[in-house]
């Protein structure tokens, strides 16, 4: 078991807004999570996401809110319900693909040697875990840039295919950026589609995740 997976223990807590399954340690929270808004003493008509009060008609929907770790769907206003529904689709599709993992040749820094590694998002969504002869755990919030490498582009706008990725990230305790290159292996034809899907999900998470953290 990797170090980051050992910190995945969760506990059930009851907040005024409902039951939540949260990490035992705050340091193990998903970087895609949200804090609950300040409690408003009107449990029937306040939105669990924004915390504002609404009439019954404008706050009647109960929608899943995984970013706040609620166990059951919770009451949300129409605007927040729409955002939460989009986020749930994001969680279900993109993050699950990343957590399932894919295989790449990984090159660290300026090295001319690559290593075959299985790359996946940790269960708590905080780390990118790489396993091969070596082992790396890259904290998601330390990743500064994600560049997807593609092939197949034509001037007429033909389809492209993701074949790799370049990450730049900071190692804790250092201000310098470390670079890591991921390349889908040409001799693993059965895994090309899986690798391309993983890279596409990584691209969407790097863009969409930043957007969701601001909401």
TrEMBL record:
InterPro entries: FYVE-type_Zinc_Finger, ZFYVE21_C, ZFYVE21_C_sf, Znf_FYVE, Znf_FYVE-rel, Znf_FYVE_PHD, Znf_RING/FYVE/PHD. SUPFAM superfamilies: FYVE/PHD zinc finger (SSF57903). One of its GO terms (molecular function) is zinc ion binding. It comes from the Eukaryota. The keyword Metal-binding applies. Keywords: Metal-binding, Zinc, Zinc-finger. It holds the Pfam family FYVE. Residues 31-80 form the FYVE-type domain. The keyword Transferase does not apply. This is ZFY21 protein. The lineage of its organism: Eukaryota, Metazoa, Chordata, Craniata, Vertebrata. The gene is Zfyve21.
């Amino acid at each position: 078991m990797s170090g980051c997976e050992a910190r995945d223990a969760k506990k059930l807590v009851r907040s005024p807004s409902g039951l939540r399954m949260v990490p035992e340690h705050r340091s193990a929270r998903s970087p895609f999570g949200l804090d609950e808004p300040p409690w408003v003493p009107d449990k029937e008509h306040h939105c669990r996401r924004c915390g504002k009060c609404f009439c019954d008609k404008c706050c009647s929907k109960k929608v899943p809110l995984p970013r706040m770790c609620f166990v059951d769907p919770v009451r949300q206003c129409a605007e927040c319900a729409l955002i939460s529904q989009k986020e749930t689709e994001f969680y279900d599709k993109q993050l699950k693909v990343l957590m399932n993992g894919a295989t790449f040749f990984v090159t660290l820094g300026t090295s001319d040697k690559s290593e075959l590694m299985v790359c996946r998002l940790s269960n708590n969504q905080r780390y990118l875990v790489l396993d091969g002869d070596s082992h790396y755990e890259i904290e998601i919030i330390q990743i500064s840039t994600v560049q997807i490498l593609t092939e197949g582009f034509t001037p007429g706008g033909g389809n492209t295919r993701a074949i790799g990725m370049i990450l730049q990230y900071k190692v804790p305790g250092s201000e310098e950026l470390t670079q890591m290159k991921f390349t889908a292996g040409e001799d693993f034809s059965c895994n090309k589609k899986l690798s391309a899907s993983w890279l596409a999900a990584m691209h969407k998470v790097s863009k969409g995740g930043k957007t969701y953290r601001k909401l």
